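step 3/5: co-fold with glutathione
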Amino acid sequence: MGLTLFGGQRSRASMPRWYLAEKAIAYDWHLLDMAAKEHQHDPFLAINPFGKVPALIDTDPALPGGELRLFESGAILLYLAERHGQECASAAERAVAQQWVLFANATLATALFNPSQRETEFPRLMGVLNPLLVPGGSISGGEWGVADCAINAHLAYLPIFFPQIDLSPWPAVEATIRLTQERPAYQQAMAVG
Ligand SMILES: N[C@@H](CCC(=O)N[C@@H](CS)C(=O)NCC(=O)O)C(=O)O
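step 4/5: write tokens
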């Protein structure tokens, strides 16, 4: 019984790893050898047939069939938040969490990683996000949670993948990245291995 998270070195598995570390949720970490294409072969394809990480198995007799297999980092984060992180207690709270996780994984990620959007859409999003951010706190009020994990993990990609982007027009974005990097749980999640 318990959680097993599958991922690779420097992969999007760092997002659920960060969430699990922040919330002190126990889990087993299964590091795949992605250089050897372990993620594209059985037995991993039985967990994610698309052969991508992260993926999660939750084994619990209370679950239908005693087990849940899940892929897509956003779905994994939202499941962890509701089932293991004491978040999303109402439909409204769940909807707000979904809003921010989908914003991060779809809208923000596309503006960052799609070169055709980086010049125009990315600054537009930063201009709106900057005053909404609460550096070191939570964008949805209350305690740090799944919405902050998804958004701030993507913002923290900026100095890693795009160090040339000048973030000084958005001081709350800069402060959020700096405070994210200082969090022990984030450092633990980003550590290789
Ligand atoms: N939208 C997916 C993206 C998953 C994804 O593309 N993961 C990469 C690693 S960061 C991967 O597994 N790439 C290996 C491949 O596509 O063969 C998610 O957020 O989980």
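step 5/5: annotate
The mean pLDDT is 97.
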